[in-house]
Write a structure and sequence with these properties.
heterodimer, A: about 110 residues, mainly alpha, 2 domains, 5 helices, about 65% helix, B: about 290 residues, MetI-like fold, two-stranded antiparallel sheet, flat
Chain lengths: ~110, ~290
Amino acid sequence: MVKKKSFLRTLGFWTLIAALVIFVTYPFAWMVSVSFRYDTDAFEPGIIPKRPTLDTYAILLGFKKSVREELSNEQQQLLEIIKTLPEEQQAAVLAQIKAQRKKNLSHF
Amino acid sequence: MAVMSLREKDARFGWKLVLPTVIIIALLILYPVFYNIYLSFFEVSISDAPNKFVGLQNYKEILTDSSFWKSFGITLLFTFTTVIGSILLGLGVALLMNREFPGRGIVRALLLLPYVTPLIAIVFAWKYIFLPIDGPLMKFLAYFGMDPGNDFVNNPNNAFWVVSIFNIWRNFPFVYLMLLSRLQSINSDYYEAAEIDGASNWQKFVHITLPELYFVIASVALLRGIWNFYKFDEVYLMSKFANTLPIYIYEKAFTGVPEQGVAAAIATILFVIMISLIGIYVKKVLKW
């Protein structure tokens, strides 16, 4: 095939390709971008995060505790309180807590 | 013992071989279908009480329900819009990608992204795009004097278009792939012959490309039509206000006071409509 290529045609062609690529990849790029942000920055404008972080991946893979987990570490606090009790009482209290938990769970 | 001819023996042996598959298919496909039809004649109870037979009451209730007809119309419109939209876009993209240009490989790979990303992740990305005030689309439209406070996704009047655009975006790569693979196998001799006869680009497209693509386009339209007519996940996750029939069935069956008998009747009606439409389509368009 012989074709005379005018500059305008080439420009139009590449504009089309660029528009297509943006149309296709924008939502995906945004998804990737948000995955590198802190939760509080999620709705910041722009596709490149201003404060990039790997936090979300660390939380996902279990290297780090999320805020939600840290706020709800009742278990840990409870254990620490029990440790302050006299030694002979510790076992009894733990057993009681366990029994209580079981009772609460059985409702479901 | 009766004497069997070799042919009969072969036939029996063949049946024995396919029997396990036939039974599994019957259990997995036919049983739910018939159970659904059976349910549609009952008032299904959600407690231990037995189902009550009500005859055609469920069907009567649906066919006189104006909200059913409304969502039926929306579903038809949704199916036509998305099928035509994704085929036009897919055809355009396939024609573009059929040319040689530097970087074609990477663009072709990127084009598959919408189809392969997990649905829920990409739905959130799209919801962000349509987000009032902060969303990029709203900010862009604000340059043209539109109120950026519009909530497209949760407005029942607009939800339909949002869902359609999203569906076209997500599914055009499928169409594009099918069409591109056919385009690549068109013999270039046809185009050369046409050029010698002095055909313009448009004439080449209409008289060579389109006839060659006819059956692929028709098959893809059929597949996309079936899928989108019953599409639940993409529609429901994107907007709960799009109100197509699968969502209507879901709401009837599982929310508020469950009316599973009615929902089953709607599903049966859809099934009958779809079967007859496909039958006509396959005969007339695919010319089987």
